[in-house]
Specification:
heterodimer, A: mainly alpha, elongated, B: about 160 residues, 8 helices, about 0% strand
Amino acid sequence: MNEEMIRKQRKAFVRDYAIMAAALAIMLVTLLVYPDRVDGVTTASWNFFTEMMMILPAVMVIMGLFAVWVPREIIGKYLGKASGLKGILIAILLGTLPAGPLYIAFPVAAGLLKKGARISNIIVFLSAWACIKLPQEMVELQFLGPKFMALRLVLTIVFIAIMAIFIERVIEWSDKRGTKAREAK
Amino acid sequence: MSTTAIVINVFALACLILAFTKDRAKTKQSLKVGVKSFIRILPVVLIIIVFIGLLLGFVPPDEVSRIVGEQAGFGGILIIALMGAIMNIPALISFPLAASLIKSGASIAAAAAFITTLTMVGTVTLPLEIKELGRKMALLRNGISFIIAIVIALIMGVLL
């Protein structure tokens, strides 16, 4: 990790804690002004807080384990080679690994594209990275229940695969048109 | 403690024990990474929890449901999908937020649309995505993801 990233992280960290302090202050003032709402607000907040704290440490442990045991280079190695349906499946599996927010995946994806990975694989990989991460699914299960989580997961995978193939066709088609136009000149 | 919470904790513990027997140093490093991410995400979790408390304590369910509930129909789903696309909060937090919205009157479809656009569409990170992957690919991915999110939400609204 370079220095600029560390500085940015530290800035974001201070900002988040400042916003948190502001939010707590707003809540306190609001409750002082409307004392009759204290029960409703604190009960709701407390319920969500305990529900979150019951799983958050476990989720963080799992994320930490993956971050150390499955280095990012491995992701690139496997995704670069794969193609076809197998490629899509591998892209989903690799994207599912908990390895940080989406913007971390952009440079990985760009590097793979340069090395000649298929566009559809990259789209699947990015989308899976964005929305079907293992720790995320755990929190979804906890708060929205197995039916909601399973149905959204299945639908998301299906539509991501369709979108990936569609985007690949569109980009290949427009690239081809671009070359033809250049040749015509 | 709910069954889900127990399963998640047992799973984490099993992974931890397995990792520990394989490589102590690596496992210690993993725990350090975990603690760091926990400290980093904690303020965001608390901000959302304050927001949820105020939402459930002050805004009457009729009000929420009028904007993003069943009777709000497609317009409600579109509004909340746009909100999800613009907001830039960690995905982990979107689930309690969506659950609280459902509790206070939002439809299942609206909650699904919110989560899906929040995770898949990144307005804030779009400039970075364009820089790394090119304008065509970034715009196509975000645009189509938004449409997909709405379709997924509509299907979930019908099925659940």
